[in-house]
Amino acid sequence: MSKAFTRESDDVPDLPIVSRSPSPLPPGAKNYLTSAGAQQLRDELDRLVQVERPQAVSLPESERRRHLQILDQRISYLEQSLQSAVIVQPPPEPWDQVRFGATVTVRDNNGIESKYRIVGVDETDIDRDWVSWCSPIAKALLNARLGQRVRFRVPAGEQQLEVAGIAYE
């Protein structure tokens, strides 16, 4: 077939379909977020819609379609996450029991202290020790009281952690 009978769009390779990432929430679970976490998601959504998407429109065609597809997928995810979000406020003091949003200081059997903040699945940040409320460590700590020992399963076996401190931001 002569090149004269082809469309320019035929020369552009089809974009691979970006698969939708599955929800990190267990089926039927509520999408809990701290108020700060919800605000971060709103800020990201605003930045994507107001700044990054308009900038992507000016990219060359070969980059534009792929970039817009990725941006639109993230925008859709953020919109759905914020629509389903249940914002959880910190409980009133005294803070003697671990609840969602708590920063929990724990002490292991060797006396080594660690801190974990229990947050929503969209707020999880392992580098900051922010763990999802669905994670095994959070499940072990939720509802524990100050001074209580909890059992936590690790790959090497079972570990006991003592709740040494509870704080909220």
Q: What keywords describe this structure?
A:
single chain, 169 residues, alpha/beta, Helix Hairpins, Chitinase A, domain 3, 2 domains, five-stranded mixed β-sheet, two-stranded parallel ribbon, 3 helices, elongated
Explain how this protein is built.
This protein has 169 residues and is α/β, with parallel strands linked by helices. The chain has three helices and seven strands. The protein has a five-stranded mixed beta sheet. Strands 1-2 form a two-stranded parallel ribbon.
Q: Helical amount among residues, as a percent range?
A: 25-40%
**Oligomer category:** single chain
Q: Proportion of β residues?
A: 15-25%
The CATH topology of the largest domain is Chitinase A, domain 3
Q: What is the gyration radius calculated from CA atoms?
A: 22 Å
Shape: elongated
Say which CATH homologous superfamily of the largest domain is assigned. Answer: Transcription elongation factor, GreA/GreB, C-terminal domain
